[in-house]
Amino acid sequence: MTKTVLIAEDSSVIQNLAKKILQFQNFEILSAKNGQAVLELLNDNTIDVILMDINMPIMDGMECAREIRHLSNPEKANVPIIAISGNAKGYTMHDFKEVGFNEYLPKPLNFDSVVELVKKYTNR
């Protein structure tokens, strides 16, 4: 069964690169440019893992992760979330864990690490 990855990233370049690389690994890809769109997509789809930028317009990654963890549907509330950020604004791994991120990947993204983590969280 195909696993679905939601890429939440306001940079089209990063979004398109991640999309191509993960599609090559046979993942289904959904994408969003802000946290509000992430919540809408999560509500309407079954998503296996989320790659989420910290700095996005409308609703940033930290707030969005917090919202996801408070959803009433336990399956959606527990979806694995991987933080991605070029400038983590002084956040520590503890800060990411506290709002509900499972992992953190710094930018520039190492796409081998992206694929490895996505596979880890989708059991592939």
UniProtKB/TrEMBL annotation:
Q: Name one Pfam family in it.
A: Response_reg
The cross-references to PROSITE patterns, in alphabetical order and at most eight, read:
RESPONSE_REGULATORY
Tell me the residues on which 4-aspartylphosphate occurs.
D53
SUPFAM superfamilies for this protein? CheY-like (SSF52172)
The keyword ATP-binding appears for this protein = no
The cross-references to InterPro entries, in alphabetical order and at most eight, read: CheY-like_superfamily, Sig_transdc_resp-reg_receiver, ST_Response_Regulator
Q: Which CDD domains match?
A: REC_hyHK_CKI1_RcsC-like
Q: Which UniProt keywords apply?
A: Phosphoprotein
The UniProt record lists the Response regulatory domain at 4-122
Which biological processes are named by the entry's GO terms?
phosphorelay signal transduction system
Is Phosphoprotein included in the keywords of this UniProt record? yes
Q: Which Gene3D superfamilies match?
A: 3.40.50.2300
Q: Which PANTHER family match?
A: TWO-COMPONENT RESPONSE REGULATOR (PTHR43228), TWO-COMPONENT RESPONSE REGULATOR ARR22 (PTHR43228:SF1)
- Protein's name in the database: Response regulatory domain-containing protein
- Organism source for this protein? Flexibacter flexilis DSM 6793
